[in-house]
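Students often ask why inverse folding is considered easier than folding. One informal answer: many sequences map to the same fold, so there is more than one right answer. In these notes we will look at a single instance of the problem. The structure comes first.
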């Protein structure tokens, strides 16, 4: 079951700075929905779950990779909140949505949920430099840090849209939903404060 994205306005995550014009929310969502729909139509005709020599089903491998990607994104949110405490409250709803996505994508059975992606609390006990998962330090200014988060959300959304082509039906639908939500997160993180979407 997919947890919908929380109702977030650009003002919830806005930092006072100006950016070049971005595509409208409508065109962003229409593009993501169109790509997801086309892929779902071709992906639903798959004949089974291919396995590797290790015997791990394709869906489980894809789910585990998706959970790892979400865990890295959660680490980036946490590092940003530690480096820029003033952003923590604004980023909390988006971080919560990413944690919900990780839980929904988890291949663990219902009785034993995987906590790896959501174990790190927002604003955790991060160290002094607050490195991002890639090893790069969080940007020095809040505006640059939020832009880096938006780039990470956008990149992951695009990667998940590409992954739809090889995903089994139910997982493809889940990835489509999570990818669309990531595109909305990127939009919210980069929208100009007070601007009409």
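Output (designed amino acids):
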């Amino acid at each position: 079951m997919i947890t919908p994205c929380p109702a977030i306005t650009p003002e919830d995550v806005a930092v006072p700075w100006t950016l070049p014009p971005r595509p409208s929310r409508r065109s962003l969502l229409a593009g993501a929905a169109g790509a997801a729909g086309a892929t779902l139509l071709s992906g639903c005709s798959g004949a089974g779950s291919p396995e590797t020599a290790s015997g791990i089903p394709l869906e489980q491998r894809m789910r585990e990779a998706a959970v790892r990607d979400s865990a890295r994104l959660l680490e980036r949110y946490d590092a940003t909140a530690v480096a820029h405490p003033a952003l923590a409250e604004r980023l909390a709803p988006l971080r919560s949505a990413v944690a919900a996505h990780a839980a929904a994508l988890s291949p663990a059975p219902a009785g034993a949920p995987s906590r790896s992606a959501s174990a790190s609390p927002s604003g955790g006990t991060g160290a002094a430099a607050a490195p991002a998962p890639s090893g790069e330090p969080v940007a020095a200014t809040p505006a640059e840090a939020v832009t880096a988060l938006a780039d990470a959300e956008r990149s992951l959304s695009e990667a998940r849209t590409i992954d739809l082509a090889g995903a089994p039906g139910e997982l493809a639908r889940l990835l489509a939903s999570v990818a669309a939500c990531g595109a909305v997160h990127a939009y919210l993180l980069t929208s100009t404060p007070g601007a009409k979407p």
